[in-house]
Design goal:
It is a single chain. The protein is of the alpha+beta class. 29% of the residues lie in helices and 22% in strands. The strands form three sheets. The protein has a six-stranded antiparallel beta sheet with strand order 3-8-4-5-6-7. The protein has a two-stranded antiparallel sheet with strand order 1-2. A hairpin with a 2-residue loop joins β5 and β6.
């Protein structure tokens, strides 16, 4: 969703201007922020320093994600535990399965009608991508989360991989990766049922809303006595007749009275005090 809020600032002439900032938030964005913050994490040699990104680095599959899941050590392959952990940390635990098994993961999505084979689907940010390997075909070999799709490539964040090209299962770290959309090892995608996100507004739409909101904040200005509330008209007409005020409005040369309601009230009060 997007959040609109007004942010007053002092503009030229000492007046307050009101701008609009657009902040795009959403469930998919949340899990991607969590995953991105984990890039660079290395698995540990032992059950020590699990929360540190780089301390006690080793190749024994000890991780903070396994600690959270309840499965750690040499046989605790953690690529899907990483995805499940990111889902839990971002408030998405109900729409991404909590599992250590890639097979269980893509089955979970398939049972809910939210799994799509590679050839029949264009992935979206926040999707869970399942990879096949020689040892584990049909999406059972590895998993990651889609960060973006751009120029014919899918960009991912993956746990238990490395920065080397291609699918690297059991690679020992959290890394960003990229693959052509038609990459043969991509088996398919789980599409979590995120909360509906509003489409991004164009710059023109943002400016139009900003102008509308700014106009709302500007005080109403009166150019003629007839524009004013009834209770002001008699006093203002006296001020005009006495030449205290000039201007009739209606032409470019004569801008009229050009008074805000506060200004008109002040003039009326001053007149009555003098009388």
């Amino acid at each position: 969703m997007f959040i609109l809020y007004h942010k007053p600032r002092l503009c030229q002439g000492g007046a307050f201007c009101f701008g609009i900032e657009v902040n795009h938030l959403g469930k998919a964005s949340g899990i991607l922020r969590v995953a991105a913050a984990e890039v660079g994490y290395l698995e540990k040699a032992s059950n020590a320093g699990l929360d540190s990104k780089t301390a006690n680095a080793g190749s024994n599959n000890w991780t903070k994600y396994g600690k959270w899941y309840g499965l750690n050590g040499p046989e605790a392959y953690w690529c899907h535990m990483f995805i499940s952990w990111c889902a839990a940390q971002s408030g998405n635990a109900g729409i991404i399965p909590r599992t250590a098994s890639c097979y269980n993961g893509n089955d979970w999505f398939a049972e809910r009608g939210r799994f799509h084979l590679r050839a029949a689907y264009t992935p979206r940010a926040g999707d869970v991508v399942y990879f096949s390997t020689r040892q584990y075909p049909n999406g059972g070999g590895h998993v990651g989360i889609v960060e973006k799709v751009e120029n014919g490539y899918v960009y991912t964040i993956e746990g238990n991989t490395s920065g080397a090209s291609g699918v690297v299962a059991n690679g020992g770290g959290v890394a960003r990766k990229s693959y052509p959309l038609g990459y043969p090892s991509i088996y398919g995608y789980g599409n979590p049922k995120y909360e509906q996100e509003e489409p991004d507004m164009t710059e023109a739409q943002t400016r139009a809303i900003a102008k509308e909101e700014a106009n709302k904040m500007q005080p109403k200005r009166y150019r003629e006595v007839s524009d004013m509330p009834e209770y002001m008209r008699a006093d203002m007409q006296v001020l005009i007749d006495e030449k205290v005020l000039t201007g009739k409005g209606g032409s470019e040369a004569d801008k009229g009275l050009d008074l805000t309601e506060d200004m008109a009230r002040m003039l009326i009060m001053m007149r009555r005090m003098i009388d």
